[in-house]
Records
---
Amino acid sequence: MFEIVKKSKKNRARLGKMSVSHGFFNTPVFMPPGTLATVKAIGPDDLKLLEAEIILVNAYHLHLRPGEKLIHDLGGVHKFMAWPSPILSDSGGFQVWSLAQAKRGNSNLVKVTDDGVKFKSPLDGSSIYITPEKSVEIQHTLGTDIVMCFDECLSDKASHAQAVRSLERTNQWALRCVKRHLELLKNPMYTKYQPKLFGIIQGGIYADLRREAVSYLSELPFDGLALGGETIGYNMPKTLELLDEIKDMIPEKLPLYTMGLGASPQDAIDVVKRGVDMFDCVNPARIARHGQLYNGRIVVNKTEIKIDSEFKGDCLRILNERFKKDSKPIDEDCDCYTCSNFSRAYLRHLYLNQETLYLRLATIHNLRYMIRLIHALREKI
RNA sequence: GGAAGCGUGGCGGAGCAGUCAAUCGCACCAGACUGUAAAUCUGGCGGCCUAAGGCCUACGUAGGUGCAAAUCCUGCCGCUUCCA
């Protein structure tokens, strides 16, 4: 269940507490994605030190390898990855879109019908068929705490007519997910997990469709709602606009989750103000691995929280020659393991030499930065 | 002492008369990344001019042949291998 602890007087931000099978997490919360049952480059011990409260895994990826049944037989995903705290699983809906984008390799990896989605495994080319029911089953079998509906992630470029059709499909799928979810909650094979189910609001860039989605999903017995689609987090001005459009329609008692949002610290600030309780993004960890590290003082004044950094985009590129002899930590205010012990010059050295320690230290920093920011935001509410 | 071969941009290594400021790899420099097909991908990488484009200096070194040379010839310097 979701409990609102405190509401901001100045904006829609709120402090909350969400209880699930494996304990609880406070909101607002940043959830590091750990797609393949691991947050890349770091371990559960690191995650605890970062004060991560909940992480993500992905139903599609774990279905492909090693298979949800194997994980179930080994005691569930928490035990499998030695993370005892809450886990949210994504449904694989995003992968339909992501694989169809085919930024690399061949493009015929996905075929969508109203019934479900046929994937070609990028691993070995074999066919996989996922329906909304199947996705929910996979997630229940994994034993995660929050199950996401299988949705159709809509492109930012979709026309209104395309978006209408896609939304219809997503909404139908949501209904099918609910049905199967309710069945599985009573199924003796799964009863020990009792996960929550979140619905996903689609509708692309169109406010009328987003509103329609909210109104449809609000009638279903969800434990939370999420905003999905390419737009969310990717096109921040539009995301904020859409949030404002639907704010009065979202049932207050449900946590609100913006999927894939949090590419930069500033995005987190913008969205929490508008009442978002949960968000996740691969970006902080990915750009860390790719050499970009968050930097900037988190300035809390009377009216707002902002980031004050000398670097473009509030992050520095550790590869840049200017850091060759730099003895300072990545961020002088940061309390993470990396900043407490290592210089920019050392991290640059590790990066240049492709030393694996770099990946861990960089990931620790960027994730901790996001979480420190969230803590500052919570204080402010 | 004799014989053969080789010297190309930070490194390795193509090119063997014109389309060569010189393929490619590494290194280096810069950029991108958003419910992770991502320890990935893209671009730049002799100098000067704002750019299309142009100019200059460059393939060990000094000369030579040719309309034209990194590419052919000669001397020198250096390196490698084989024989004594």
Note: The first strand of chain A starts at residue 2 and ends at 7.
---
Amino acid sequence: MSILRPAPTLDDVARLAGVSTATVSRALNVPDKLSADTKDRVLDAVRTLGYAPNFAARVMASRKTNTIGAIIPTMENAIFAQGLQAFQEELRLNGYTLLVASSAYDPNMEEEQIRTLVARGADGLLLIGLDRSDAINAFLRDRNIPTLVAWTLDQTNSRPSIGFDNRAAMMALAQKVIGFGHRRLALISAIARTNDRARARWQGVLDAMEQAGLSAEDLTVVETPYGIDNGANAFDRLWTADRPPTAVMCGNDVLAIGAMRRARELGLEVPRDVSITGFDDIEIAQVAHPALTTVHVPHAEMGRRAAQALLAIMTKAADVPSIALSTDLKLRGSLGPNTR
Amino acid sequence: MSILRPAPTLDDVARLAGVSTATVSRALNVPDKLSADTKDRVLDAVRTLGYAPNFAARVMASRKTNTIGAIIPTMENAIFAQGLQAFQEELRLNGYTLLVASSAYDPNMEEEQIRTLVARGADGLLLIGLDRSDAINAFLRDRNIPTLVAWTLDQTNSRPSIGFDNRAAMMALAQKVIGFGHRRLALISAIARTNDRARARWQGVLDAMEQAGLSAEDLTVVETPYGIDNGANAFDRLWTADRPPTAVMCGNDVLAIGAMRRARELGLEVPRDVSITGFDDIEIAQVAHPALTTVHVPHAEMGRRAAQALLAIMTKAADVPSIALSTDLKLRGSLGPNTR
DNA sequence: TTGTAAGCGTTATCAA
DNA sequence: TTGATAACGCTTACAA
């Protein structure tokens, strides 16, 4: 049992250094406004006591946390992990700390997390996607919380966002798929109701089909939660249907990897028997066999620039324009000509 | 430009409800100690004002944050993401919030993050691995911060830990590899100097070799940072050496996936031309082609039980024994007999 | 069951 | 350049 020693406070330091608490505070926050002599004395005292400022007290007094909150759907999705890593690094460079919370793709949980982070005094917020209740939007507006939406573009431009055109990107990919002669298409999509990215990608497929003169009936859609196994099971359902598709497009790479696994388990060869595509271009996309045709999204760049944009919103207090990043089609082995 | 409305405080709620601030506080924290009538009145006022308690103020007054901090090497590693997700869920169930920080595998950054989280009043800390400076260990002891170490076992039992025997697990896998007739082995390891898990796994390989009568010279080791590409490049170095190994063991699945990719790029067939093994059993291990032989670690269970153990340390203030979880060998297609 | 009032450890304003 | 001192918004004895 070690003796419980209370953390040293400003007062302890002040007493040891023979100055007032105000001076200690200044030595720590605005060192240039002190005589070199007292500054040294204070910093010595800080060191010998191992003093670290109490965060809560500092927040109360200064009404600033230097903290940014981010709420992502899940930590298990590599694209968010990658984007957040870059986001965090850029924030650190600017003296900010990142608080991460995850919503498990549940809107109610997201709301709760938003309120928690705001109560914790987050100076700004990074959110994913646009789907959000009016109540929570009003809350953020009323409280005047600088907020940036990422991984999607707010086409109405009613709030700052950084992302890419999910619909256009998916449409471009679908055009390629159709260009390979595929007519019976399928889409394994994330749950669309609460996920604007999923809806936009779905719409992109439809747009490409319409442009090519295909009807919406030529598309079978399976919605499923995130996860490799879910992708695999979705593929099952497609394959046991009356007229199986010749190409299966997936709303993200993880679902696509699952679909490819199941295809192999069913004795199918990709892309000879069925073409499969993804979205995101996570690392495994290139490692899969055959390599996955997908849409490359610059996640790390998005994270970095999201940090810059959010800080700009916070300091300038001016409206910062939305930032559109471009995506790249990555045509790899999993997409081939229709042979049926 | 919206009008900046300051967040409502306890006082606002109290005035609207016609009670004292103490009563509002009680209505929120110990509702059963109030008359149903006043409680309703207070909660109504809370709702109409959209009141949310100020976290910093609450912390200052109660000297408790209900916050647990976790510092992981990187968010990009799926094993930590998965473990933390479970950790967080279990904490939430118990009314705690998780703060995550990452150290980018840098000990200095880890120290800084520890100090940051402590200054923020983390009631407890989850740390990965044992490698830590005396200074920071002393700091944690002095401050009496409940701390749990995960993903490894503290064999000296000088502090509570939850994890598995990395050395024994890797040794068991190496025995299998040797049992397949491999004599020239290689190990692609994470940077060992600052990573006890990496060192333990390395030692496990050596122990298995010694037991089988092989000499340490029969093992070539390449140390490399985390990442698929790094695994691929490490494989390159091994393969262009004088006597390439017949089996390449990897310190984790991500390195192994990289190694398998490069092997394929070099025109090698796994396991005919070279066997490859991993460690962790992340999801892609089963999806890889051939599927990766690896060591299964119950990451989610570890996260869940880590939360329980840490809460136990915090409340009981008693020393909680270290928890050893068991691992499973997963023999899959990437390991085959030595044919050279 | 409810109210009063004293902190909690900083920062920031105002004087000196 | 430094020091007093009043906030900051909440919890929690202690009283009533």
Note: The first helix of chain A runs from residue 10 to 17.
